[in-house]
Amino acid sequence: MLRGSTWSISSLSAASIYSLHLYGVSSLNICWIRRTLDAREPNDANWIFLFGPVLAVWFVSFAVLLFATFRFARRQMDSTYRSKRRSLLQYFRYLIMYGAFWVVCGGLYYSAYLRSFSGRSAHHIELAFMVALGSYPLLVGVVWGVNTDLLTHLQGGDPVLEPNVGLTEHFSTSLRKDLMKYTTVGIIRSLREPSEDSPVRRTDKSRSQPLSDPNISRSQSMSSASARSDEFEDGGTHLWYAEKKRLATTVRLNTSKLQVYYDKLGFTDYAPRVFANLRAIAGIDPEAYESSFVGTLSEIASEGKSGMLFYFTSDRRYIVKTMTKDEHAFLLRMLPSYHAYVRTQPSTLLCRFLGCHSMQLPVGWDKMFFVVMENVLSTHHEIDDRYDLKGLFAPVLQPPLRVFLKDDQTARLLSPPQTATKQLWHDHEFVARGTYLNVASTARLELLTQMTSDIGFLQEMDIMDYSCIVGIREFDAETESTELLPKNAIVSADAKKVYYLGFIDILQSYGLRWKVQNLVLSLVRDKRTITALPPPEYALRFLSFLHAHLLRSSADGSASFKSMTARSSFNYGTL
């Protein structure tokens, strides 16, 4: 777009100069606008079309940098502050060099112009003008060397940078770090702030204490965890689902050269007592829950395929994930039903929501919403296989073609190269690898009953596009105890493996966007391979897939293997 605008303006300028007959010989042939020999008869077009764009670019750039500096002075976030400060300094160096270069060139050109470009002095000025004009690439290189600390690198030293800031650190990386930091400390402050004080008032002491101070008094902490299950049965607690606990705290940001205080970080905790009760139902100790976030400041946030940011706590027991405004509103709408269901179904495989929060970032940013969830694959052991199942159509694959080549010396077996191991498998690979849960018949029946109940609830809530996460790892019965496994973990019938199960991504309501997607994709693709389905259809297909593949018995697996082997016998041959 910028290139097109530049060529459009250049073409318009050339057409204007040609139509006005302003073209001709200029000084040093630096442009094709003709010059005048008499200073009393200046060629205005020369100055307008040559120096006009130069001045326009400089003033526009200066205005943009001035505006950015003003925004920067409004106290940015920590890592973002350091990255943006460094970027602004680099831009200002280029702008100063650009302005000084054209001031010198313009002054020399004007001096030669006053001398009518004739005489010995004018000749010397033109030579100086030529040298100055040709020095632009060298000046750009000098500024680039200053911005990249090139001289320090050549001398074998370390570049002078802010702490924890890499030479090529991207701004978005810094932003993710800041988001992780402030969501974490906001959650910690919310846990330590009594629900009874919110949103009516806060004491001056808690307001003035920096949010990043790790030594905040714990005298008021965990008060929100007093919301027991029996309290929700007494009535009058429907207001707790709409409760909001707002915190406006002072955040202290430290750098090596200056100290910055950003004091308008707005943090909101939604339905704190309800989520405290959900944590109690999940058997989560309040102090252990808080300690999981205390050690999270060194973790690195990452971005998922959906564009949402998420990060794990230091013990990897919980996940903090940003969500859209629509997902946030839907979660609060379904919270009463979700809470009631989880209370009556303690063994549910539904994703455990443990907190819902929002944060108002610096000026110019919208409010960000995020949710805290229990990690389905929470374990200190290494997970061997991970599957994300949506119930998509996945036909049983044939084994790779195997061909024997015979010669006088030996026989060689040729087969396609094995694909590289992936971190996360999906429906297609799950079926092709013949994976299933090798559990006792009673456990299989209990799982099927629970899955049917959970999927029925999701259908009732008009939810679709959810997944079943499956994690499989080795189990050592001699050194491990089944009592220490999480509720969503199941030991195989032969006590050699552990299966982790859970339903995730349960905040997708079947709205207009999904209906349009279903209408379009149904015309061009097989409906068995799309996820944009009405909740009843999605639930039926999802449950059928789990019953046919995930929960099939070992006898079914043997029959399936024999059938696949029989069909693949035609793929063998001898050349």
TrEMBL record:
UniProt KW Transferase keyword: yes
Pfam family, one: PIP5K
Bias (Basic and acidic residues) ranges: 194-207
GO BP annotations, alphabetical order: phosphatidylinositol phosphate biosynthetic process
Domain PIPK: 204-550
Superkingdom to which the source organism belongs: Eukaryota
GO MF annotation: an example: 1-phosphatidylinositol-4-phosphate 5-kinase activity
The protein's name: PIPK domain-containing protein
InterPro entries referenced in this protein's UniProt entry, alphabetically: PInositol-4-P-4/5-kinase_C_sf, PInositol-4-P-4/5-kinase_core, PInositol-4-P-5-kinase_N, PInositol-4/5-P-5/4-kinase
Organism lineage: Eukaryota, Sar, Stramenopiles, Oomycota, Saprolegniomycetes
Endpoints of the signal sequence: none
Residue ranges crossing the lipid bilayer per the database entry: 12-35, 47-70, 91-113
Keywords assigned: ATP-binding, Kinase, Membrane, Nucleotide-binding, Transferase, Transmembrane, Transmembrane helix
